[in-house]
Specification:
Elements: H1 4-19, E1 22-23, H2 25-33, E2 40-45, E3 48-55, H3 57-65, H4 72-81, E4 85-94, H5 108-118, E5 123-127, E6 130-140, E7 148-156, E8 166-172, E9 178-184, H6 186-189, E10 194-195
Helix pairs in contact: 3-4
Length: 198
């Protein structure tokens, strides 16, 4: 018992220091994409798996720059292009790796139409007691190669709301699964590492 408390304390301090240090672009990406850090939430509904990733602005900027080292002016310019919006990626996958568009007793065309156009109306982001509609919605073509459907989502971002708790709510009216919600707490969002720039 006496050893347990110091070990837990050391692990907590190590985790805090890792998330508050300056890291390279590759480590920043890896950190956000590690489900243990809370930026990826997953839920099952029927035979489908819904996997939602919150994409902090710095993460999106690093991906857009596409270099192992990031210069301060490159980061600033890239962040300016993302101003006013906050981004998520939603992936939908069948538990048995079947094609999602041929599921749940609906035709492929019905599913494609829903995921391309109508689904956007059933998504909202709750933040600071505001319910924000989905402002940008894009179904990425997979040409039947990927087992996932990948959808890029964006919602309006208010000044100073970067670390506010975010709850994305999807009210599924197509397959009849009902409401799914994905929460990213303010504690998780405030725990991001700092990007090392040059």
């Amino acid at each position: 018992m006496k050893l347990t408390i110091p070990i837990i304390l050391l692990i907590g301090i190590a985790g805090w220091s890792l998330s508050h240090q300056k890291v390279s672009a590759a480590k920043y990406i890896k950190w956000v994409e590690d489900p243990e850090n809370g930026f990826i939430q997953e839920q099952n509904a029927g035979s489908l798996i819904y996997r939602l990733k919150y994409q902090p602005a710095t993460y999106k900027a690093i991906l857009a720059i596409g270099k192992p080292t990031v210069r301060k002016n490159e980061l600033r310019q890239s962040l300016e292009t993302l101003e006013g919006l906050q981004y998520f990626t939603l992936q939908i996958k069948h538990q048995l790796d079947a094609q999602v568009l041929e599921l749940e007793n609906k035709s492929g065309m019905d599913n494609l139409s829903y995921f391309s156009f109508q689904m956007q109306e059933h998504l909202q982001l709750i933040e600071n007691d505001n319910r924000l509609p989905c402002a940008l919605f894009h179904l990425e073509p997979s040409f039947g190669i990927s087992p996932y459907l990948t959808i890029v989502l964006a919602f309006e971002r208010e000044q100073g709301s970067e670390n506010a708790t975010k709850v994305l709510v999807y009210d599924d009216q197509h397959f009849g699964f009902g409401e799914l919600s994905f929460q990213f707490s303010d504690k998780i969002l405030a725990n991001l590492p700092t990007l090392k720039t040059y």
